[in-house]
Amino acid sequence: MGKGATLAIEIKQDAREPVFLALSRAIIAEIERGRLKPGDPLPGTRALSKNLTLNRNTVDAAYHELTMQGWLVAEPSRGTFVAGDLPDFGRESALTEPADADGQNVRTHRQKLNISDGLPDARIAPTVPLGRAFRKALTSPPFLKSAYGDPRGCLILRKALSQYLKDERGLTLGADDMLIARGSQMALYLAASAIAEPGSAIAVETPGYPLAWAAFRAAGARVVGVPVDGGGISLKSLERIAEREDRLRAVYVTPHHQYPTAVTLGAGRRLRLLDLARRHRLTIIEDDYDHEYRFAGHPVLPLAARADRSAPVIYVGSLSKILAPGIRVGYAMAPPEVLRRMSDRREAVDRQGDVFLELALSELIADGTLRRHVRKARRVYLARRNHLAALLAKHLSHVSEFVLPAGGLAIWLRLNPGLSAEAWAVNAADLGLSLLPGVHFSLGPARAPEAFRLGFASLDESELAKAVRLIAKSVPGA
Ligand SMILES: Cc1ncc(COP(=O)(O)O)c(C=O)c1O
């Protein structure tokens, strides 16, 4: 809002509710549709009451109510503002629900609503401190020296990240055990190229993460699928594969939140996995891509955090789910010899990391911005998880089921027998909604699960509601 502007606003009043509540709802609606943005000033109560021909006490009461709910903040002697920690709902790509009163227009609308596989919402990323950190990085000595540095990445970021991982995830490895990569994607490729000679195999979860399979294949490895059940990777199947495949070198797992089912690998299976890896001399590649988002139960530490190091673990993580996937910073922690090979290979294709970005990110970790952002993101995404779960229970329980995930950024929605996720996704695409069906995560078409992975973090509550309405409209055969 411009300085000194007043607020023309339509109040839809219901005779049964007090006027201040109707005004509160109207202001929330303006925030949600992006007209009022985080940090925007609201008109003074005198001006607004005059403008809307309301009693000043009514406006006071509405502001008070919205301040209590966290939509507004009152700053003494400055005025009342839209809370700064809300997402900016008014981004350019406003999502359009088809004008479907008559059911005709839906195929003509072009803007797509995309349910991701679990992306964060870059709209809430700490862009102001990040901008400040970028400016500072540009004038900092390591950047101005403009020399080539360590292919493992800037020491200052490796120190900051390894300290963060020690505090938050119980990892005791240090800066020398870490390599910064352009996203965990590069780290996965380097890991495979460091441990698997051409033709050797890496066991992977199925359903699982296709981009990891692509990285392993690009490094010359074969991938062998291990089925996943309601408790995560099947260790019986892995044991059989390890006995049969004498060129099996590694197993790739997502134990914290299995991708795509979101299941957490329990303590028993973790111990059996470590034991199996030790007996068959396998390296465990642990992809802990969205560790921060744990909403229930006790913290579960990574396999790499255990005291007993009898089975080697390459631990891979990323800032993509904390900040945004456009910030290409991931990392790996590995035993010294493996890390050296990874570093040599990295140097061969990309002499060093992005010093400017790495310095800026180390600043965000050092000044506490990253941790604060994680706390805020966890709060926002928990509300979105609960909102999506409530919508699914209300609108889709007759055709599907899900287990509320204790963590992660997606719900795995399993369809009732006889329903095809692919056919459903095609119908949804016709309505402008893109959805990821189970086949997308399946190593062999024979075992494709009839399910959807529904990422909830990148959509706000009204976008989630639109998405679920469109999913419900696209049930095959309905
Ligand atoms: C299983 C898994 N691992 C890793 C990543 C992160 O990839 P990157 O760090 O390359 O952005 C993702 C992102 O979607 C993921 O789903």
List segments where confidence is low: pLDDT < 50 over at least 5 consecutive residues.
92-110
The count of helical stretches stands at 15
Number of strands: 16
Give a quick account of the main beta sheet: strands, pairing sense, barrel closure.
Answer: 8 strands, mixed
CATH class of the largest domain: Alpha Beta
The spatial strand order of the largest sheet comes to 4-11-10-9-8-5-6-7
Tell me the CATH topology of the largest domain: Aspartate Aminotransferase, domain 2
> What share of residues are in beta strands?
5-15%
Roughly how much helix do the residues carry, as a percent range? 25-40%
* Structural domain tally: 3
Quick structural summary:
The chain has 478 residues and is an alpha/beta fold.
Give the key terms.
binds pyridoxal-5'-phosphate; 478 residues; alpha/beta; Aspartate Aminotransferase, domain 1; Arc Repressor Mutant, subunit A; eight-stranded mixed sheet; Aspartate Aminotransferase, domain 2
Can you put this structure into words, describing what you see?
With 478 residues, the protein is α/β, with parallel strands linked by helices. The chain has three domains: 19-82, Winged helix-like DNA-binding domain superfamily/Winged helix DNA-binding domain (Arc Repressor Mutant, subunit A); 105-120 and 372-473, Alpha-Beta Complex (Aspartate Aminotransferase, domain 1), CATH 3.90.1150; 128-367, Type I PLP-dependent aspartate aminotransferase-like (Major domain) (Aspartate Aminotransferase, domain 2, 3-Layer(aba) Sandwich). The chain is 39% helix and 14% strand. It contains 15 helices and 16 strands. The chain has helices at 19-32, 45-51, 56-69, 127-138, 141-145, 155-169, 183-195, 210-218, 235-244, 267-279, 336-349, 355-366, 369-395, 421-430, 461-473; strands spanning 72-75, 79-82, 113-114, 178-181, 201-206, 222-229, 232-233, 248-253, 283-287, 313-318, 330-333, 400-401, 410-415, 433-434, 436-437, 451-455. Strands 4-11-10-9-8-5-6-7 form an eight-stranded mixed sheet, sandwiched between helices. The chain has a four-stranded antiparallel sheet with strand order 12-13-16-15, covered by helices on one side. Strand 6 (222-229) and strand 7 form a beta hairpin. The longest helix is centred in the last third of the chain and has 27 residues, at 369-395. The two termini are 45 Å apart. Mean pLDDT is 91; it is low at 92-110. It binds pyridoxal-5'-phosphate. Pyridoxal-5'-phosphate is lined by residues 183-185, 209, 254, 259, 287, 289, 318, 320, 325, 330.
